[in-house]
Each structure stands twice: as structure tokens, then as C-alpha cells.
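It is worth pausing here to work through a concrete case rather than discussing structure prediction in the abstract. The textbook approach is simple: state the sequence, then state the predicted structure, then interpret. We follow exactly that order.
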Amino acid sequence: MKYLAPDFVTGLWLAWRARLFTVLFWIGMVLVVATLLGAQFSGRQPATVALDIGLSVIRLGLPLLIILLMQELFTREFDRRYYLTSLTAPQPRSHFLLGRFSALIILTFGAIIILGIILAALVGYLSYYGYQQSTPVDLGLGYVVTLVFTAIDLFVIATLALLISIVAVTPSFVLIGTLGFLLVSRSYSGIIALLENERYVVDNPELYRGSLGILYYLLPDLGALDVRRISLYSKWEFLPADWPGLVLSTLAYALALLALSIWLLGRKQFN
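Step two, the predicted structure:
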């Protein structure tokens, strides 16, 4: 780890200099406002709605933070030719990549913990002072498991954004490519399930299922990592039966993307 420490510290300093902690502050403000307003104006059970909306804000807001961090730590490094300093040190390029990527992951996981604590406090307040719900929310182990699965989801998104940042020629490509991956990988399994259960929604659903089924071999099923219903309804039957295989295959996919990024950076030609 001592070989990664200088680039790890540099990554943290670049994030601080770019005022990306301000972005986290505003994500937290959106979380607080959306959670409280959602609980007040929804006809459903307020604590359940508040937790549902809060988890959605975390799952939508933190990928944007990852993209901004990736642009600051990698894409602009290449775009502004700062690599003439950072990559000339007598060390493998993998140390540069792993050091800064470690800083990004630590910041992301720290953001999950901070936002998770804020959301739990808000929902706990609503549960304590609101009426007794027939299906109370689970802010214990079920909530922790939900956040851990969210962290795995964000780790995959971060490795994909890293790969794009290594091969991209403009910072905007990191934004577009990562958001496109996020949208497809989180939604395709739900669309296939819809075509299986509601066959009347389109003509010839088998054709669409066959086409979308190819995505199972190309992309991880990030939609299956959204296990928030465990915490929303305190029911563990919403945990996928094959969750160990799901977690291992997703982590293997992320590590493969990370290894490919290291390989590409080692062979990248700078002009």
C-alpha cells in the first residue's frame, strides 16, 4: 500500500481542490428535502415513502459524484497534460491508477455512509413521531445490507467510468458513457421480466426478449442489486435466492474492468 500512498493522497487533494465535497453537500440537501417532502405529501406510509425516496436519491446522486471525480482525477489529467509530471515518476503506471482509484472508492463509500446515516436519522424521526405502520421499515441489518448492495453497484459503475476515462478523448464521453451503462444495466432485467409477465404490452414479446437477453452475457444485472424492499417492508424474502452468485459475478465483472483499465493505461501512447 505504501507504493499507492502518494497517488492516493494526491487523489484526495484533487477532489478537495475541485470542491467536489460541495457536490456531496448538495446531494445531502436534496436527500433531506426530498425525503421530508415525500413523507409529507404521499398517501402511502410516510416512513416507507421517505426511505424509498432517500435510497433513490443516493442511487442517482452518487453516480454523478463518481463521474465528476473520475473527470477530475483522470480525464483532465490527460487532457491538460498533467501526466508529464505525474507519470514520469520511476514507478509503474498501475500505481498511479490504483492510488487515485482507491481515493475515489474511499470517497464514494464514505459518501454512502454519511448519506445513509442522514437518511436513517430522518426515517427514524418520522417513524418515532408518526403513526404505527402495519409494515414498519427495517433500519437495522436489512438497511445495512441494502447499502452494501448499493456500494457494490457503485463500485461497478466506478470501474466502468475508469475504463472510459482511460480511452476517452473528451471529459463529456465519460459522462455520456457512464450514464448510458448505468441506465441499461439497471433496467434491462426489469424490462425482460415485464415482457414475461405482461405479454400484451408489445407485439411479438419473444422477439424483444431474445434481443434483450443478449445483455445478460454482456452486462452485470445491477437492477437485481436494488434490494431496498428488504428495508422498506422488513421482509427478507425480497433478497434474491442466488445473491452469493450475483455478488460474486458482479465483483468479478468489476475486477475484470479494473484489470483491463490497468492494461490499457500501461500501453497508452501520449502525444
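Step three, interpretation. The mean pLDDT is 85. The chain has eleven helices and no strands.
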